[in-house]
Design a protein that fits this description.
The protein has about 375 residues and is of the alpha/beta class. The protein is built from 10 helices and 18 strands. Strands 1, 2, 8, 9, 10, 11, 17 and 18 form an 8-stranded mixed beta sheet that branches. Helix 2 (about 25-35) packs parallel to helix 7. The radius of gyration is 21 Å and the shape is globular.
Amino acid sequence: MKTFSYWERKHFWGFWDFIIIGSGITGLATAINIKKRNKNAKIAVFEKGVLPTGASTKNAGFACFGSVSEILDDLENQSEKSVFDLIQRRYKGLHELRHLLGDDHMGYEACGGFEIFMKSEAESYEQCLGSLSYINAELVEVIGKQAFWDSSHRVEEFGFADVDHMIINREEGVIDTGLMMKNLLNLAKSLEIEIWNGVEVKNIQNSGTELVEIETQMGKATCNKTVVATNGFARSLLQDLDVSPCRAQVLLSKPIKNLQPKGAFHHHKGYNYFRHIDDRILFGGGRHINKESETTDDFGTTSEIQDYLEKILRTVILPDRDLEIEMSWSGIMGMGKSKEVILKEVMPNVLCAVRLGGMGIAIGAQLGKEAANLVSPQ
């Protein structure tokens, strides 16, 4: 703080009631919910990037809570209760985000989510089809309605090649990720929540009093309570957490005339996903072909996965169509041995709200609300 003037220390930097680390969906939702219940609270959000770093401004914009093959895969590795409790959390989270911003402020389209099955995946399709009654019955218990139906009769209308079957989730949709985050930031600022971009947190410690000390490249800041909401980057601050960075690569086509398909589409247990956006096709995924290389916090793309995505795009999704790739990018998710979120106090007055398992849009707003309940109970 040697570079700060008296005025800067008095009015800008030093002490806050709450410091939130990370300005993604979870971090902003935490700050907003604290402020709404405590209007006099002084709140700062520290963000190391110029924009929210991680996945909140880099995701594919899927308002989804899981495809059938992904749910079945989860059931092989987790208890039935944990799987459907997580679906309930995702479903509630989507509605919380929509309630927080309004559909128009996030470009929400209730287009449905389709899982596609290629000819070589007939066995997987039959397994999923045979599980629909069971999964729908469980969904009635946790979200109050059925969601999945066979929609194989619609395959032809989308113009896919080598695809025989589809299953629709009628409760899914898409959003405009950038619009959503822009309006979430605007909402936080309208509540006089301070957003500090370019501030990287180096260390967190309890000073031996009730105050928490936050060390940054700009100097130390103190607060009564802090929430770590950095998801895939959380272990750089809290080494003992079971959360690892996982890269998700995406590519985007140039505009395509008379574009079909339109909707949200899943493939291969949710590892691949594509959708329409502004007359373009956005296609992401491929992490399953090299999980080791994609367990990284390095933003970038690889020819291995980009070539894989482009091949499927040209041969399956848009066969016999002239298309050009306009851009590609990646985001960093937070994964662990379990898909359950981590929401707990890790040291006195320091809470973490991380490990969203690639479902930040679905979980972030609800997780932020739950974190606010813990650090600032009504």
